Amino acid sequence: xxxxxxxxxxxxxxxxxxxxxxxxxxxxxxxxxxxxxxxxxxxxxxxxxxxxxxxxxxxxxxxxxxxxxxxxxxxxxxxxxxxxxxxxxxxxxxxxxxxxxxxxxxxxxxxxxxxxxxxxxxxxxxxxxxxxxxxxxxxxxxxxxxxxxxxxxxxxxxxxxxxxxxxxxxxxxxxxxxxxxxxxxxxxxxxxxxxxxxxxxxxxxxxxxxxxxxxxxxxxxxxxxxxxxxxxxxxxxxxxxxxxxxxxxxxxxxxxxxxxxxxxxxxxxxxxxxxxxxxxxxxxxxxxxxxxxxxxxxxxxxxxxxxxxxxxxxxxxxxxxxxxxxxxxxxxxxxxxxxxxxxxxxxxxxxxxxxxxxxxxxxxxxxxxxxxxxxxxxxxxxxxxxxxxxxxxxxxxxxxxxxxxxxxxxxxxxxxxxxxxxxxxxxxxxxxxxxxxxxxxxx
Length: 443
Hints:
Elements: H1 21-24, H2 45-54, E1 57-61, E2 64-69, H3 73-81, E3 85-88, E4 93-98, H4 102-107, E5 119-120, E6 126-129, E7 131-136, E8 142-150, E9 159-163, H5 165-178, E10 185-187, E11 193-199, H6 203-210, H7 218-222, E12 228-232, H8 249-252, E13 255-259, E14 267-273, H9 274-286, H10 294-304, H11 319-322, H12 325-328, H13 339-348, E15 353-361, E16 371-373, E17 382-390, E18 395-403, E19 410-414, E20 421-428, E21 431-433
């Protein structure tokens, strides 16, 4: 151990409220310059107006142009981990796939399950499910990850792809090679479509208050599993009777409310026309719900241990390395691009590295790409991909890759073979797998 250094794990346990606003901006975002401008961005104009009203500080990031913060990241974090906060996530790209057989074409391209069309309930609310998935190269490398919705039933039923900004360009190139335009075509992203997220323990109650049709569904919204959605078609009412599915959500203006799994607090994504989202934002602000920027969202994501494309998920990443196979791969489906590699690793092989969580203790802030070292190996054994100052853990934390021989729980050295000792922890879909004496202020 380096003299004077305390590794992560059962070390310091400061009051999370003591973390300063500057710390709470998140180490992965501290090198990004604030701006009042809205350069080329996926954020639709009605939501840009909202952020100007809020005095948001914008930043260019790997995820597109985003509201970095609204002046007090400590208060924003407290709101998001308390009752509720509003996060604009319209930097993600939302595109429709339509044609003669878009579902059949997608089945051979995406690694995961294909979603069913939403079904209408007697209460006028459509019920459906979106699935997390990935698109792979023939060698099993990641083109992008995405969330896949089905908007309509039938062979010609349209699908909605929710794609990270960093994955949009490679996805377009991939579709040009592997998606037959006679059967499926991409409709360019509409600047009038966006996504906001209500995060916090009272998210369901507050959204139900914004939609009279949801007034009796608070418990149902709170109990949604990741990817489950509720749909309100134009005018706030899902279609009743008739053909068996709510009206097309993106062209006719439906609102989709979907449970997000990216963070640990209850988080409900609201996808729909930007004008409607701006109205929902203002109504929730009138009810006292504060906004939170992406510095807080990224802190929550890393505290939950979920990898993001362009940060921890990179073009050279294999799905088993990132630990997303259970969520991203349908092991029962027929052929899809990259399947052979995934099956071979599952049945006969191993990967050389795994995505891990790191408790940094008193170690200095690591930049993305900082090497990691383990005992008995002179060469680096991995690297940091992201890091934030975590109120939940009372110290800096990071996500990164480490060779498989360094089994967690354990330790690694940061930056050099004699660098600060940090704690290594495994990750799961449910979050960090902590040791008994690890600090966790969400307990």
